[in-house]
Amino acid sequence: MILRPNYIDALIPFVDKPQIKIITGIRRSGKSVVLALLKEELLQRGVKEEQIITINFESFTYIELTNAKNLYVFIKEKIINTHKYYLLLDEIQEVEDWEKAVNSFIVDFDVDVYLTGSNSHMLSSELATYLAGRYVEIPVFTLSYREFLDFRKHYFNEENTTDSFVQYLRFGGFPVIHTADYSEETAYRVVYDIYSSVILRDTVQRYKIRDIELLERVIKYAFDNIGNTFSGKNVADYFKSQQRKVDVNTVYNYLNALEGAFVLYRVPRYDIKGKEILKTQEKFYVSDVSIIYALMGYRDRMISGILENIVFLELKRRGFKVYIGKLDTTEIDFVAEKRNQKIYIQVAYKLDNEKTVNREFGNLLAVDDQYPKYVVTMDEFWQDSIEGIQHLHITDFLLKET
Questions:
Q1: CA distance 150 to 398
Q2: Nearest 5 degrees, angle CA 393-CA 139-CA 219?
C-alpha cells in the first residue's frame, strides 16, 4: 500500500478533535486506502486494535446495517469500556438516515468518527441539520501526476521520463490502473466498469433517474465540451436541433446528479473587474480524464480541453477554489484562490504561432494586479516569460511546489 501523504496530512490535525471527518470522492479514487492508512497511523500512536471499529458498507458482511437503528445497536455493542473508540465507516451513504446514527454516536459515546462517501450531496442541508458546524470534509481525488510517478516507480520501478506525462494523459489517475500492467484497451475497460458503477449506484439509483438514455446523452454532451462554457439551455437547444425535446430543468437536474456522484465538477465564471460570480455559462470538468476515453475513445482534437481538465484537478487537489475568469470580452482559463493566495492560469496545447502567443499572454497581461500568472502548455523548448508571466511546461506546473 502506497502512502498518499497529502490526505493523511490533512486528516492528522483533526485526530482526536471533536469534528466528524468526512472523506469524499468518486468511487475507486482511494478513499478506502486513506482510511486504511489512517488506521495504521492510529495503531502506531498506541491505539489498541479493539478500539478501532472499521465497517465497509459495500461488504455483504454488513448488509443488516443499512439503516440507522441497526447501525447504532451494532456500534453500541462494540463499545465495551470507557476508552475512546475510533469509528472508520466506509461508504456511509449506503446507510439510510446515517446522519441520525452518527449524531447519536457523538452524543452518547466517546468516539472519534471518520466517514467516507461517494456522493457530494451527503453534505447537504439534511446533514447540516444534525451535524451543523461539527464536521470537516477531506476531498480525495484520483492520482495527481506526482502520485502517478510514485505508483509507477513502486510497482514497475519506472523513472520519470519524457514519455511519463503522455502515459498519465492517456491512462488517467485511477489508482487501480497503475497497480498492474494494463494495455490501453484493458485500462479503459476497467475505467468503464468504474464509471458504470458510479452512474448506476450514485446517479440513477440515488436520484431515481428514469430516462437513462437521456442521462447518457447529457454526459456525452458534457464530455464533448470539456473546456467550453455552456449552460443547461445550450444542452436543451442542442437536443432540440436533434429533434429531441428536453426540459431545461431536467438537464440541470441531471448535471446536478452527475456533480453529486463526482463525475463532473461545475466551475462558475468570475467577473474579475466586478469581483462577482456570474450565474451563466459555466464550465464542467470530469473527475478523471480516463472516463472520457473509456466512454468516447481518445480524441486528439480534445487535447486542449483535456489539459485544462488536468490543470483544474491539480488546483482542486491543492485546495484552491477555482473559477473561470471574465475580463471584459476576454476569458482567463482559471482564477484560483486559497486564503491569501491567488493565481491566474492560461492553458494551451502549443504556442505554435504568434496569434496563440498573443492570446494566451495577452489575456493575462490585461489583468492589472501583482498575483502570479502562468501560461501552461506542452511546448518542450520555448519557455520564455513575458513581462513577468511565467511560461511552464505542464509537467513543471504539476510538480511545482506551492
A1: 14
A2: 75
The answer to whether residues 177 and 5 touch, using CB atoms and an 8 Å cutoff, is no
Whether residue 190 contacts residue 177, with contact meaning beta carbons closer than 8 Å, is answered with yes
Could you tell me the residue ranges of all domains in the chain? 5-139, 299-402
Integer angstrom CA distances of residue 250 from 2, 28, 216, 256, 284: 42, 28, 13, 10, 17
Is 14:136 a contact under the CB 8 Å cutoff? yes
Distances in Å between the Cα of 228 and the Cα atoms of 101, 116, 331 are 42, 32, 11
Report strand pairing: 330-338 vs 321-327.
antiparallel
- Three-state SS sequence of 87-118: EEEECHHHCECHHHHHHHHHHHCCEEEEEEEC
Check if the beta carbon of residue 148 is closer than 8 Å to that of residue 179.
no
Bridge partner residues of 283 (DSSP): 267
According to CATH, the topology of domain 299-402 is Trna Endonuclease; Chain: A, domain 1 (3.40.1350)
275, burial (CB in 10 Å: exposed 0-12, middle 13-18, buried 19+): exposed
pLDDT at 333: 97
Distances (CA, A) of 69 to 38, 57, 144, 169: 27, 15, 39, 46
Range from 277-281, 348-352, 380-384 that averages highest in pLDDT: 348-352
Angstrom CA distances, 321 to 223, 315, 340, 397, stand at 22, 8, 12, 17
**Which residues 6+ apart lie within 8 Å of 107 measured at CB?**
none
Burial class (CB in 10 A: 0-12, 13-18, 19+), 278: middle
Fold for 5-139, please state it: Rossmann fold (3.40.50)
Residue-averaged pLDDT of the chain? 93
Pairing verdict, β 135-139 and 20-24 = parallel
pTM summary value:
0.95
Greatest CA separation for the chain? 72
Rounded Cα–Cα distance for residues 21 and 137 (Å): 6
How wide is the angle at C-alpha 237 spanned by C-alphas 233 and 242, nearest 5°? 150
* Number of residues that make up the chain: 402
Residue 52 has pLDDT above 60, yes or no: yes
Q: CA-to-CA distance for 122 and 339, rounded, in angstroms?
A: 25
Give the tens place of pLDDT for each residue, 310-354. Answer: 999 999 999 999 999 999 889 999 999 999 899 999 999 999 889
